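Quick note —
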Amino acid sequence: MEYGSVVHEKYWLKQLKTFFKRVAPPLNTILDADGVIELWLQGEMFRYFSAKEKDWFYVGDTKRDVVAYEDKDEDPTLIMEIKVSCRGKVQPKFLTGFGDMRPYPGSGRYTFSAKDKCNTKEGSLLKDFQKLTKYSSTAKAKPHGCLCMFIYVSGTEAVAGDRFKEAMEVVEFGSPRKVIYKDRHIRAFAWIVRT
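Predicted structure written out below.
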């Protein structure tokens, strides 16, 4: 399989769909545990993919959430950043690092780019997306490339006045979202990051 290719992309999207279907029941419960959800999800990914994949699979890397290697001495074939929002109301700064949700205009579709301004001192979806665009541009120069993927997971319940969750219905990160998993309680989207 040529890494960074459409075949590689389809392979990982299919694997993630299977993974989320498997972990949906416990994930539905853990969405109420703000502060540990993302770490729990990374741990479940490690358990699932390290037992299944021939690739070297790592989670919780200090710079990246998920990394897979075909050979541990080579460049990664997959890099994922994961963001999970709890079931309750989410702070607006979770989108860009700013409390007022800039640069998101607040109505209609909006596609974030690597050039949009984010608060680099706060953790946010835009900051993680921009980090992936840097990996993607570096990986493009390598012979086999690397698939860079941005994953967002949340509960489906709407909370009145939650501008963040309203925004997540219409914003995109560089490319159109792909639905990985959706049921009555959980939704998981992926954006393939290309430069």
